[in-house]
Amino acid sequence: MRQFLQQLVNGTVLGATYGLIALGYTMVYGIIQLINFAHGEVFMVGAFGGLTVYRYWLPDSLASNVWVALPAVLIGAIAVAVGVAVVMERLAYRPLRNAPRLAPLITAIGVSIFLQEAVRLFYPGGKRQQAFPQMISSGTFDVGGVTVPWVSVFVVVVAVALMVGLQVFVKTTKTGKAMRATSQDPESAKLIGIDVDRVIVVTFVLGAALAAVAGVMQGMRFAQIDFRIGFLAGLKAFTAAVLGGIGNIKGAVLGGFLLGIVEALATQYVPHGSSWKDVWAFVVLIGVLVVRPGGLLGERVATRA
Amino acid sequence: MNTRKPPALAVAGTAALVAGSLSPWATFAGYPGKMSLGGFPGGARLFCLLLATGAVLFVLDLGGRRRAALAVGIGAAAVVAVNFAGLMDHGGGIGSVAWGAWLSLAGAGLLTAAAWRLPAGTPAPKEWPVLPVAVEVAAVAAAVLALLGAVVWGLRINESSRFVSFLVFVAFVSVAVHHLGVFEALGVLFARRQRIALVLGGAAAVAFPFTQQGNAYWIRVFASIGVFAVAAIGLNVVVGLAGLLDLGYVAFFGVGAYVGALLSNAALTTVHFHVPFLFVVLLGGCVAAVFGLVIGTPTLRLRGDYLAIVTLGFGEIFRITANNWDGLTRGPNGISGIPDLAAAGFDFGESHALFGVTLPGFANYYFVELVLIAGAILVFTRLNDSRIGRAWVAIREDEVAAAASGIDTIRLKLMAFAIGAFLAGCAGTVNAHVTTQVSPDSYTFLESILLVAAVVLGGMGTVPGALLGSTMLFVLPEKLRSFQDKRLLLFGAALILVMRFRPEGLVPSKRRRRELRERAPEGVPGLPGASGAPPGSPVAG
Amino acid sequence: MSLLEVRGVTKRFEGLLAVDGVDLDVGEGDILGVIGPNGAGKTTLFNCLSGLEAPTAGAIRFRGAVLSGRPDRFTRAGVARTFQNIRLFPHMTVFENVLVGRHCRTHVGLASAIGRGPKFRREEHESEDRAAELLGFVSLDQAGDVVARNLSYGDQRRLEIARALASEPGLLLLDEPRAGMNAQETRATADLVRRIRDRGVAVAVIEHDMRFIFGLCDRVAVLVQGRKLVEGLPAEVQGDARVIEAYLGAPAG
Lengths: 305, 541, 253
What we know:
The complex is a heterotrimer of chains A (305), B (541) and C (253). Chain A is 72% helix and 4% strand. With 305 residues, chain A is mainly alpha-helical. Chain A has one domain: ABC transporter involved in vitamin B12 uptake, BtuC (Orthogonal Bundle), CATH 1.10.3470. With 253 residues, chain C is an alpha/beta fold. In chain C, the strands form 2 sheets. Chain C has a 6-stranded mixed sheet with strand order 6-7-8-3-9-10, with helices on both faces. A 4-stranded antiparallel sheet of chain C has the order 2-1-4-5, with helices on one face. Chains in contact: A-B, A-C, B-C. At the A-B interface, helix 5, helix 10 and helix 12 of A face helix 12, helix 16, helix 18 and helix 20 of B.
C-alpha cells in the first residue's frame, strides 16, 4: 500500500510536467488544428534558457538566493521559449496556414530536428548532459511513510497554479475570449473583428511559457538536462492532450496527471516495467485513439467518412 | 529561332570569364585542382569555363533565356565565391587569391549584368512537338547519359571545395536548363517514350558499377542507397499516393530485416531454420505487410495528423520491443554475423570479374536491389495509373466525397499501408545481408524521418523523386565530410525550407504540385479547400 | 413497391433533434422535392440517406434491403448524391473525377492492376467509355482534360452530377443543385434532372427555389424543424395553409 501511494505521488509529479506541456499542444491544436510537433523542443529550449541565465548571467552572490535565482531562471526560460515559439510560428507555420495538412506537420518535424540539433551543436557543451541547478533544497519529508521531495511539492503547486491561472485567463479576459471564439470558428471570429493572427501568436506564447516552466521543473527534478529531453516529453505530453481530449484545456490537465500516474504505476507493477517505461504512453495513446478518439473530455475526431 | 548580335557587356563578360578561368586562381600550390597553374582549366575553373558556354544565350533568341542567362551568370559568380572562401581558408587571407579568380568574378558579374538587361522576352514553350521516334529516343538516351555522367563525375571528386563547386555548378545549370523549358520537355518526352526511358535508365543503373574500376567504396554506398530507395518508393505509395503520413515506417523495414536475419543461418540467430533467399524476401515483405494491416486496421479511421503520431508510437513500440525481447531478437546486441547470400554456387560476398572489370561483392547486392527497385517501380506506377490509384487521389483530396462516390476508404488506405509495408519488408531482408547485422537502434524515429525526408525532398508521388531523394541523403553526407556532424541540422532546415518554398519537391508530380502550390482564395464559398476546413474533416455536406 | 423506404428516421445531435421520425417513399422514376425553411434538417436527412451520418433511430430500405454502415455501401447499393457546397476532387481532371465515380462498379484488384491483364484493360476501357458518355450527357465533353477546380460554378455542379451518375445509381440525391445559378442555368438544370429521370434514375432534390421545385417534381415533402409537415402533389403542398405558415408565420422559422 505504501508503495502504491509512493507511486501515486511520483505519478502526480510526473503528470504535472506532462500537463503543463500538454496545454501548449491542446491550445495550438484547438486554434489552428496543427499538431505542433516541435512543442517538446520548445520545452527543451526553455530549460536551456533557464540554465543559461543561471550559469552565465547570475552573479554567484545571487545564485544561491532562491528568491532571486528561481524567478530569474524562470524568466530566462520563458523568454527563450517564447522567442523561439514566436519565430517558429511566424517563419515556419504562418506561411503554410492554407496548405494541405501534411505540409505544416512535416515542417513541424523539421523544426523539431532543427532545434534539437542547434542546441546539440551550438550550446556550449550541448552534446553532453548539463547539470541543472536545484535551487530548492534537495530535502524530503515523510507523510504516512511516503517520501516526498520538496521539489515535487513545488512542481505540483506551481503547475496547478498555472493551470488554474490559464483557465481564468481564457474564461475572463478579452484575449482569452477571442481565443475561444477563434477555436470555435476562425472565419466568424475574423468577421466580428478578432485579429486571428494575433490570437494565434498569443496561443503560441502561452503554450511556450508553460512549457518553459515545465522545462525548468524537469531540470530541477532530475538535476540535469540535455538536447534530447524534448522528444519523449513532447510525445508523452501530446498523448496526455489526446487522452484528455485535444483542444480541451481541462482535458490536457486531466490527461497529464492520468498519464503520469499510469506510467508510474506500470513501471512499478508490470514485470520488467522499467525497461518498458516509455512504451506505456504509446500504448495509452493508441488505446485512446482507437477506443475513444475524442479523448475523455473532447469531441470526436475520427472522420466519419 | 533568330540570332541576335550579342551585347558588348556580354562579350566582355564572357571574355573575362574565359580568360580568368584559364589563369591561376591561387597564389600558392597545393590547392585542389592545380589552381596556381595558368593556361589550364583545372579544378573549379572548369565549371566556370563550362558555364561560359551559356553565353550563346545572348545570341540565340530562346524562350525564357533571360532567367537562364541570369542563372549562368550568378552560377559562375557562386562557383568563384565558393573557391574564394576555400582559398582564403587554405592559404591565408585575401592574398592567397590570384588575379585569375578576380577576373573570373568580374566576368561573371558582367555576364549577370548583361543578362539582367536582356528583355524579358517570351517564356519557354509549354507545348512540345512530336518528333521522329529516333530523335526522341536519342534525346532520352542523351538525358540518361548526362545523368549517369554527372553522377560518376561527381563521385570522382574527392575534395570538399571542388565538390561544393560541382554542386553549385550542377544546381545552376539545372536552373538555367529549367528556365529554357528543357525539363518540362523531357518530362513530356519520358512520359511518351516511357518504356524506352525505363530500359535506358535501367541500363545506366546497371552500368554504374562498371564505371568504378573495381573500387568498392561508392558501390558500397550505392548498395545502401538501393535498399533505402526501395523503402522510399514504398513510403511514397503511403505518403505520396494515399496521402498518409507514416512516421514509424522504418519499423516495417526493421521487421523485414529481422526476418532476413533470423532465417539467414547467422551464427547468432535464434531461429535455426534456413530458407532460400528469394523466399525470405517475399516472406519478409509479407510479415511486414501483416504488421501493416494489424497497425492500420484500428488506426486508419483517424484523421491524417493523428495517424502520423500513432504510427510514430508503433514505430517506437517496435524498437523498444526489439530491445527487450531477448529470446527472439537478442535485445540491444542484435543479431550479427549474417552471412553473405549464396545461390547455386555463386557467393554474393565475393568479387567477380565481368567484361574485364572487377566488381566487388557489394555490386552483387546492388544488382539484386536494382531488381527490387524495378519491381517497386512497377508496383508504384501501375497502381498509380489504375482505379486504385485514382481512389487514393480522391481520398487525399476529399475523403468525404470519396466515400460518397462509393470508395471504401478504409480498405484502400489499408491497401496502401500494406503495400508500403511489403516493399519496406522486402528491402529490409536485403539490408540484413548488406549490413551483416541488425540491431534495434538502426530503426529509430530518426530513420523514419530520413525516409520521409527523402520522399519529401525528392517529390511526393513520383518515382524519380524517391530515387533522387534517397541518393541525395546518402551521397551528400558522404561527400561533405566536414558537414557530417551538421547533417541532421541541415535536414531539419531542408524540411522547413522545402515545405515553404517548393513543397512539391525536386521532381514534382503534376497533380501534387497543383495541390500543394495553391493558396486557396479566402472566403470563396462553395469551393472545397477554400474554407478553413481541411479535406477529411468531419464537416459533412 | 417503392425504391426507397424511409421509416421513422431520427437524428439527434447533442440536445438538438435535427431529424425527427421522418417517413418518406421514393418510387421508381419519381422526382421528389424536399423543401423547408433553413435549419429544417433537409441536409441532415440526406446525410442519413447517403450514409454520411448514422441515424439515431429508424430504418432506410433501398430496393427492399436495409441500408446501413459507411457511405460507400450506400453508393454501391445504388444511392448516389451531390453536395450543397460542391465537393469535387479539385485537382483531378474532369474526366478523372467521373472515373472515380466508376470505382464501386469496377473490381480490378491489386494483382490485376499490377499485372495489366486483359480483364484490366477491358474494365478500364469500359469505364472510360461510360465516363465519356456521361460527360456528353451533362454537356461537359469538351472539358475532359480541364482540372476540376478551374471549371465554372455551374459546370462544377454538372460534373458532380456526372460523377454521381457514374456509380449507376437507382436514386440520385441532389442537395440544392441550382444554388448560385441564374434563370437560364436553372432551366437547364431542371431539364437535366428530367433527363436523368428518363434514364431510369429516381431523383430526390432539396431546393429553396419554389418555382424550380413545383415545376419539376412529381411530389413534394415539406420538412419543418426536423419533422415532415406535409407531403403531396406540388399543387396540394403549394396551397397548404400549414406550409405557408411555416414559411411566413411560424416563430421558429
